[in-house]
């Protein structure tokens, strides 16, 4: 099982959330340092219907177990079937849990049949606009965000 958090934009579910709810499947792609710029610019709030993958010039391949394509050049992809969604907090963010049906792991991450993240560590968000990998920080210009909307019973506040 894997869990991801999906926020809302101006109180409305983002395309990612709509797609997961509609199709019941998703892919978690874990990038490496070579994709820092694309990951950062993936945080732009594109209008509904605009493909981040196409806009950022990323390549995809068909998944094996789900109908959602996965990114070709990431070191790890997890093909998932939707298990549950829990809305929480005042903003209506959703914690999405998926059953992992297939793992795609770059060969260079494998050592003796196990994943060794020290061999080819993936970038992990540090805080805000900073990413950390192998002890190095990368600072980038912040991406503009729609202010958070607080939801209350019966509508927005």
Task: Please tell me about this protein's structure.
This protein is mainly beta and 157 residues long. It has one domain (2-156): Electron Transport, Fmn-binding Protein, Chain A (Pnp Oxidase, Chain A, Roll). Helices cover 12% and strands 41% of the residues. It contains three helices and 15 strands. It has helices at 15-23, 36-41, 52-55, and strands spanning 2-6, 8-9, 12-13, 25-30, 60-61, 70-71, 76-88, 93-105, 110-111, 114-115, 124-127, 130-133, 136-139, 151-152, 155-156. The longest helix is centred in the first third of the chain and has 9 residues, at 15-23. The chain starts with a strand and ends with a strand.
